[in-house]
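User: Hi! I'm working on a homework problem where we have to compare a predicted structure to a textbook description. Could you give me the structure for the chain below?
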Amino acid sequence: MLHTMVDFSEKYLERAKDMKNRLGFLRRRNESGGGSNAAKLDKVIKTVKPSSEEALKWGESLDKLLIHKYGLAAFRAFLRTEFSEENLEFWLACEDYKKAKSQSKMTSKAKKIFGEYIAIQSCKEVNLDSYTREHTKENLQKVSRSCFDLAQKRIYGLMEKDSYPRFLRSDLYLDLINQKKQSAAS
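Assistant: Happy to help. Predicted structure tokens:
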């Protein structure tokens, strides 16, 4: 039992350090403004951190989680602990790809996305069936906004059925939705 508590404490400390590092950009931005940096950082973190009610809404759907900046960051942190962050990165890259203004931008982004996430043995290869992989490869012969739609849909489905339910059971998420109860007990 004591060993389990020590393991849990170590994992919790690692998560806290990870969150502190991710929020470091807020500290650097505030330090350039002068004044009481610690107070400014606390204020910014409180405005960024969602209420337990907002976090509860993330449990309604993966879409609601992904449209919230803090929800997206929390989900990314969770996926990092499971070594499956490439799924979210791919999905986000596809969303960004759809916003490309010119055909030349779309073409270069399409090649980069394919090479990074879809090509076999790529550094961040996502788990796609051979049909979807081949279909996407064929789509690149004539680049359009919909080149990655099928692959993106499959990866979204994987996250929705697999990673997202585990995220909703994770300590990270449960801590967010129970924060009001914890602060009332303090």
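For your comparison, note the following. Confidence is low (pLDDT under 50) at residues 1-9, 23-34. Residues 1-48 form one domain. Good luck with the assignment!
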